[in-house]
Write a structure and sequence with these properties.
It is built from 18 helices and 37 strands. The chain is α/β, with parallel strands linked by helices and 727 residues long. The N and C termini lie far apart (55 Å). The protein binds acetamide.
Length: 727
């Protein structure tokens, strides 16, 4: 039942969001419970603060300083892996500090005095391959590890030590110290949605570079969804010839004619297999394993458009759709469809060498399966009782195929419903209950709960934030997340593989914004996943952020500095300032989004904060003693949200004139009308229109003002951009 409710509430998801309010309270309760992992490294006696994120397990200060300047020697080891890492460090230092080291090939057993050394020692028995040590003395820096993965992280930490302050006259004075470091959790991931919006291969590789610099080691790559199939599959070329392209939603995109075709311009792109091999090889060099996701049995519209025989309904889908939310389109359960999926997975496994393949499993509403005589007949043939069990059969069949090829299946927590596949790993997104159930049942799990680890939530409430979901998922909220749920017994904790944040891109159209929405929240994920609970300290983390931000700038990484901005600086109540929608209050909090306008096609677009279930805004505490008039700017956004039956719950107010009006009421939305602004001047524009000024009756004191549009249909939806009071 939960699946149907959750899925159809849409957009990950309305009812779900409401349930999460309760879950968040539970989560808050979890945060105060200290967790101790059976296999956690020992937490040391004392640790000196160092400007490193994630905080290392142990750092001990020593006397002395190692002076680092251009020309300081770095000994390139004979071992090719260690040599690669030494080069990586030297290149990084040059890129971000402009400091060129002298590379010295190691020709003998001796090590040059006053040099930096990277050393692969024989691994200690039972040691974690990601562990490493750094010893800085006044004579030498030695970075060592038993495994190339650990040595790579030694290079990352050393680079952070070298970039934590300002270099004076080209000199970096590194205080002597010893660091011994080891991760808390094995899976420290980010999910990137390249289906809703496509990012270039160059950006994907850069994203991997940035992950590596945070010791994040899993990129879950969301490659297929309703709105696009992004992975070249040689056996099924239409997946990318057809499935990778769509006309974006809205009138502006429909009117944007491609002269080459005479039709609306298509948006999209895909990753060729050569490109994927390049990305996978690059990721391996950065300790990042890519877990590809081929979503099934839902989120399958793009594949079904390309190969209609995969779908359930007789009427083929005409084109790859552009709405966000949850479509009803599922794969059918014919043997031929499983053969298709297995053939796809053969190519996926050949491209991605990691242990895991993600099979999705989320938000598969069962209406089409229920309505299809053919699917029902198959269920009877197979002796399957209901559609929930059919999904379980579906995922188990895929799991068997993956297992037979030496791989493991991971899926969203819906794969628990109807019976979980034997060895499947559960990615818990609808809160943390999925993780608790999975671990109790002896299954591995990764925590990735909405809303805390959903990076499509806005990072701050200001009007300069890029589009996203309306919930403000501030850095502190992310940092407060505890990945070992309190409900998990000590003997089940080994099933918690780790955590992951998800960068869904429905509202994140550009690469620049992907970076902004991800950082620095990814730094918080890194610290939660890597550092022992005893090392976690919000104030200390914030103190380390200025150095982190300086590194981001040196790397050319666009990030949010919302956390360091003085609070409340964007609001000057009572001044006759213009309040953008982000500084108004939505009348309700049903499904609040910060959506981007669909126009102009090229150039800056407005961003509207709007509750799409109830487009209505409150201008709080307006000083009406001074106001003689008001002015507003409005836009129209496509209602491109698949929210199923919840659409019927949206109440529209009938207009008085054909074009509709914006009504302004005093004190609340049932209050006395203060102004009515005709929308006719804005009707022809897909972008923002400033409506003619409206006079208001003289009113004493401060009052709330309610703004609500009248309209007959939902698409397009009117949105408020800003309001201004005039004297
Ligand atoms: C999900 O957010 N649908 C996993």
């Amino acid at each position: 039942m939960l699946t149907t409710n959750c899925s159809y509430s849409g957009l990950r998801t309305l009812r779900w969001v409401l349930a999460c309010v309760a879950a968040a309270a539970f989560l808050g309760a979890c945060l105060s419970v200290p967790a101790t992992l059976k296999n956690e490294h020992d937490v040391p006696r004392a640790s000196a603060p160092v400007d490193v994120i994630p905080a290392p397990a142990m750092a001990v200060s020593r006397d002395g300083v190692f002076p680092l300047r251009a020309g300081t020697r770095i000994t390139i080891p004979r071992d090719p892996q260690a040599a690669r890492i030494a080069h990586y460090f030297a290149d990084l230092l040059q890129q971000t500090r402009g400091m060129r080291l002298e590379l010295v090939e190691r020709s003998s057993a001796s090590v040059a005095e006053h040099s930096i050394v990277f050393r692969l020692d024989p691994p200690a028995l039972g040691s974690n391959p990601e562990s490493y040590a750094i010893e800085v003395t006044s004579q030498r820096i030695v970075a060592s590890a038993g495994d190339a993965r650990g040595l790579f992280y030694a290079a990352v930490t050393l680079w952070q030590l070298c970039t934590s302050g300002t270099a004076h006259s080209g000199l970096i004075e590194l205080p002597a110290l010893r660091i011994d470091d080891s991760p808390r959790l094995a899976w420290r991931g980010l999910m990137l949605d390249s289906a809703r919006h496509y990012q270039s291969p160059e950006f994907i590789m850069q994203f991997i570079d940035w992950m590596a610099l945070h010791k994040l080691n899993v990129l879950h790559w969301h490659l297929t969804d309703d709105q696009g199939w992004r992975l070249e599959i040689k056996r099924y070329p239409r997946l990318t010839q057809i499935g990778a392209w769509r006309v974006p939603a809205g009138a502006a995109a429909a009117a944007d004619i491609d002269p080459a075709t005479g039709r609306s311009r298509l948006y999209g792109g895909f990753y060729s297999q050569d490109t994927v091999r390049r990305i996978v090889a690059h990721a391996a060099q950065r300790n990042v394993t890519i877990v590809p996701e081929i979503d099934m049995p839902g989120h399958a519209s793009a594949a079904i458009v390309a190969y209609p025989e995969l779908g359930v309904t007789a009427r083929p889908l005409e084109a790859v759709p552009a709405d966000w939310g949850v479509y009803p389109n599922l794969y059918n359960v014919e043997d031929n469809t499983f053969t298709f999926l297995e053939n796809v997975l053969d190519e996926v496994m050949a491209l991605f060498p990691g242990e895991y393949v993600h099979a999705g499993g989320d938000e598969a509403v069962k209406d089409q399966w229920k309505a299809s005589a053919r699917v029902q007949a198959r269920m009877r043939q197979l002796g399957i009782a209901d559609e929930q069990a059919l999904q379980s059969y579906f995922i188990q069949r895929i799991e068997k195929y993956l297992n037979a090829h030496g791989r493991r299946l991971i899926g969203w927590d819906e794969i628990l419903e109807g019976g979980i596949a034997q060895d499947a790993t559960v990615m818990s997104w609808r809160g943390i209950d999925g993780a608790v159930s999975a671990a109790r049942a002896g299954h591995d799990t990764v925590l990735s709960p909405w809303p805390t680890l959903y990076f499509d939530n806005r990072q701050g409430a200001g009007s300069t934030e890029p589009p996203g979901r309306g919930h403000v998922g501030a850095l502190r909220e992310v940092y407060g997340f505890e990945p070992i749920p309190a409900g998990i017994a000590a003997n089940q904790r080994q099933h918690i593989l780790g955590l992951q944040a998800n960068v869904w891109t429905e509202h994140i159209r550009t690469e620049d914004r992907v970076a902004y929405m991800t950082f620095p929240r990814a730094a918080a994920v890194a610290e939660i996943g890597w550092s022992a609970p005893e090392r976690r300290d919000w104030d200390g983390f914030v103190q380390r952020l200025p150095a982190e931000f300086a590194r981001y700038r040196a790397l050319g990484l666009r990030y949010s500095d919302d956390v360091l901005r003085p609070s409340g600086d964007s609001r000057q109540w009572g001044a006759f300032e213009r309040r953008p929608s982000q500084e108004l209050k939505t009348c309700t909090d049903k499904l609040v989004l910060s959506v981007e306008d669909d126009a102009p096609i090229g150039g800056e677009r407005a961003i509207f904060l709007i509750d799409i279930m109830n487009p209505c805004w409150i201008f709080e505490s307006a000083d009406l003693s001074r106001a003689a008039a008001l002015q507003v700017a409005v836009g129209q956004v496509p209602f491109n949200f698949q929210i199923g039956k919840d659409r019927e719950a949206i109440k529209l107010t009938a207009p008085q004139t054909p074009a509709g009006e914006l009504e302004v009421r005093l004190d609340n939305c049932e209050g006395q009308p203060l102004a009515v602004l005709p929308l006719a001047p804005a009707l022809a524009s897909n972008a923002v229109t400033t409506l003619p000024m409206a006079r208001i009756a003289h009113t004493q004191g401060r009052h709330d003002l309610c703004f609500r549009f009248t309209q007959r249909t939902l698409d397009p939806l009117w949105a408020l951009d800003w309001v201004q009071l005039l004297e």
